[in-house]
Amino acid sequence: MAYAIIKTGGRQFRVAEGDTIDVDLLDVDLGNTATFGEVLMFADGKEVTHGNPLVSGAKVTAEVLEQRKDKKVVAFKYRRRKGYHRTVGHRRKLTRVKIKSISVGAKKAASKKAEE
């Protein structure tokens, strides 16, 4: 089974076709496609291709399913015997995407033929 490791929003995700993942908020409308061009590694079951730092010509396309918020994260600050306590929190904004295709591009095939 082919999979890729992509980088988006400062995080890295291992994705395969058909996977559904939550990434940081993307400026893409519902139902449209998002393209991730920062592919760090690609594996097709037999061979592993890693970039330096990116795999050239590789991209991952995904369909935007929904824009949502994550669970609430509460940070409670407290100093004992001082009467000090603060509660702060936040909810990350996320985009849920479904991976449609992983394409490596012609550059990989051309470089592979040159090595042989």
Could you give the topology of this structure?
Layout: E1 3-8, E2 11-16, E3 20-24, E4 33-36, E5 39-43, E6 48-50, E7 59-69, E8 73-79, E9 84-90, E10 93-103, H1 106-115
Antiparallel strand pairs: 1-2, 1-5, 3-10, 4-7, 5-6, 7-10, 8-9
Key features?
4-stranded antiparallel beta sheet; 1 helix; elongated; disordered C terminus
Detailed description of the structure:
The structure is a single chain. This protein is mainly beta and 116 residues long. The protein has one domain (3-109). It contains one helix and ten strands. The strands form three sheets. The protein has a four-stranded antiparallel sheet, with no helix packed on it. A four-stranded antiparallel sheet has the order 3-10-7-4, with no helix packed on it. A two-stranded antiparallel sheet has the order 8-9. Strand 1 and strand 2 form a beta hairpin. The radius of gyration is 20 Å and the shape is elongated.
Précis, in short:
The chain has one domain. 9% of the residues lie in helices and 56% in strands. The chain contains one helix and ten strands; from the N terminus they run ββββββββββα.
List the secondary-structure elements in sequence, H or E: EEEEEEEEEEH
How far is it from the N-terminal to the C-terminal residue, by CA? 25 Å
As a whole number of angstroms, the C-alpha radius of gyration is 20 Å
Helix/strand structural class: mainly beta
What value does the average pLDDT take? Answer: 90
Task: Find the count of extended strands (DSSP E, 2+ residues).
Answer: 10
